[in-house]
Q: What sequence folds into this?
C-alpha cells in the first residue's frame, strides 16, 4: 500500500513539474503486425449494446417508480394501466434488441492482430524513441533534484519546503564567470526572496564546491557562490 502511494505521489510530482506525460513530438511509427488491437466491429457493437442497455435501465427505473396514487377511479386506473402497458411493451422491445446485439457481439472476435485489420481501419502509433530518451533525462533530473533536496534539508526548519526551494533556485538568474588563468568557472547565483533561503543556498554551494566538479569541454572547475550583497 505504501509503495503504491509513493508511486502515485512520484508520478503526480513528475507530471506537474517535469511534464512526464507531455507529448515530445508528433512523429508516428508503424504498429507491429502481431500487436493485438480491439476489433472495430466489436467496438461498434459494444457501443450499441451499452447505449441500448442504458436506455433499457432508465425504462425499467421508470416502470418501477410508477405508482397509482390518490383516489382509485375507473378512468384514472385505465389511464394508469394503459401507460404502464405501453412502458412494458417498450421494455420488452428494448430487451429483445439488447439480447440480439449481445448475440452479434458474441459472434465477433474481441481482438485482432494489427495485420488482420481492414485497410481502412489501420492506424499508426506515436513514436516512442524520443519520448523514452526525454523521459530518461527527466528521471535523471528528478534524482539529481532529490539528492539536492536532501542537502538543503540539513539547513531547513521545514523539510517539506526543500523541493520548492530547489525549483526556485533553478529559475533564479546567475552570472557565469570563466577564468582560464586559474581554471575555474564561477556560477554566481542571485539572491532569493528571504535571508533563510539564501542561507540554505549558501550551504548548498559549499557542499557542491567540495566535489570539485569539472565542467566538460573547457575543463574548468565549477565554483558556486551567491552574489555579494
A:
Amino acid at each position: 500500500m505504501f509503495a503504491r502511494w509513493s508511486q502515485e505521489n512520484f508520478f503526480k510530482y513528475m507530471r506537474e513539474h517535469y511534464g512526464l506525460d507531455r507529448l515530445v513530438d508528433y512523429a508516428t511509427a508503424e504498429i507491429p503486425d502481431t500487436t493485438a488491437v480491439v476489433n472495430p466491429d466489436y467496438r461498434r457493437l459494444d457501443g450499441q449494446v451499452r447505449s441500448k442497455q442504458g436506455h433499457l435501465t432508465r425504462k425499467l427505473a421508470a416502470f418501477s417508480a410508477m405508482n397509482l396514487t390518490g383516489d382509485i377511479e375507473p378512468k384514472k386506473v385505465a389511464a394508469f394501466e394503459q401507460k404502464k402497458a405501453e412502458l412494458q411493451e417498450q421494455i420488452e422491445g428494448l430487451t429483445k434488441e439488447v439480447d440480439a446485439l449481445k448475440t452479434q457481439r458474441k459472434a465477433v472476435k474481441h481482438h485482432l492482430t494489427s495485420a488482420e485489420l481492414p485497410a481502412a481501419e489501420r492506424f499508426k502509433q506515436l513514436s516512442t524513441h524520443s519520448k523514452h530518451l526525454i523521459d530518461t533525462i527527466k528521471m535523471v533530473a528528478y534524482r539529481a533534484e532529490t539528492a539536492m533536496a536532501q542537502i538543503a534539508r540539513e539547513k531547513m526548519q521545514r523539510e517539506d519546503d526543500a523541493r520548492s526551494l530547489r525549483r526556485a533556485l533553478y529559475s533564479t538568474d546567475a552570472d557565469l564567470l570563466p577564468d582560464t588563468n586559474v581554471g575555474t568557472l564561477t556560477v554566481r547565483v542571485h539572491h532569493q526572496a528571504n535571508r533563510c533561503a539564501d542561507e540554505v543556498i549558501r550551504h548548498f554551494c559549499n557542499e557542491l564546491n567540495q566535489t570539485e566538479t569539472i565542467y566538460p569541454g573547457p575543463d574548468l572547475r565549477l565554483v558556486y557562490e551567491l552574489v555579494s550583497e
Observations:
- Strands lie at 28-29, 36-38, 111-113, 125-126, 174-179, 184-189, 214-215, 220-226.
- The chain is about 55% helix and 15% strand.
- Residues 129-226 form one domain.
- The chain has a mean pLDDT of 84.
